[in-house]
Amino acid sequence: MGLRHPNPKLAKIHRSYSVEEIARVFKVHKNTVRNWFEQGMEPIDGQRPAVVRGHEIRRFLDERRARAKRPSGAGRIYCLPCRAPKVPAGNMAECLAAGDTTATLQGICPDCNRMIYRKVNPQKLSAVCGDLDVTVTQARPRIEETTKPNVKCDSTGDGHP
């Protein structure tokens, strides 16, 4: 129904919200909002119906979002299936430079043997890589970037239609 990490900026800081209004604004279930009270969101007073100030909702959701973040650090790439930053297998990674300001650092997860990727700025590559052995390669040009595109696109490989 709603998002795992709702946007805290949807709550107006000078407004008070009931449980139903919070659920409607953030597109979550009312029971989810009640669970937030158990996790640390403070109502205005201890009486019913529970009413919460907008700045308290923002504070709670910002802190909750900050706790969920897992910074990768130098020499690590985040593995989605493992849900943790990992040092690539063999301390080796490849950097595919797509342009002057974008590149993709890729390696193999040592635990699940899947490819792991991290977007980096090529100018800041030394700070991101740490002590990884990185091979920098230029990405293949896209068809719109080539001066003479190849029109042979059949799947047989012999070049004849």
What key phrases describe this protein's structure?
161 residues, alpha+beta, Arc Repressor Mutant, subunit A, Nucleotidyltransferase, domain 5, 2 domains, two-stranded antiparallel ribbon, 4 helices, 24% helix, elongated
Concise account of the structure shown:
This protein is an alpha+beta fold.
How would you characterize this protein structure?
The chain is α+β, with helices and mostly antiparallel strands and 161 residues long. It folds into 2 domains: 8-68, Winged helix-like DNA-binding domain superfamily/Winged helix DNA-binding domain (Arc Repressor Mutant, subunit A), CATH 1.10.10; 77-145, Nucleotidyltransferase, domain 5 (2-Layer Sandwich). The chain contains 4 helices and 8 strands, in the order E-H-H-E-H-E-E-E-E-E-H-E. The strands form 3 sheets. The protein has a 4-stranded mixed sheet. It has a two-stranded antiparallel ribbon with strand order 1-2. Strand 5 (92-97) and strand 6 (103-108) form a beta hairpin. Helix 1 (19-26) crosses helix 2 (30-39).
| First-last Cα distance | 49 Å
Name of the CATH first level of the largest domain: Alpha Beta
Radius of gyration: 24 Å
The portion of residues forming beta strands comes to 15-25%
Q: Strand arrangement, largest sheet?
A: 7-6-5-8
Task: Write down the secondary-structure element order.
Answer: EHHEHEEEEEHE
CATH topology of the largest domain: Nucleotidyltransferase, domain 5
The description of the largest β-sheet is:
4 strands, mixed
CATH architect. name of the largest domain: 2-Layer Sandwich
Mean of all residue-level pLDDT scores = 86
Count of individual beta strands? 8
Helical percent range? 10-25%
The count of helical stretches stands at 4
Shape: elongated
Number of domains: 2
Give the low-pLDDT segments: none
Structural class determined from secondary elements: alpha+beta
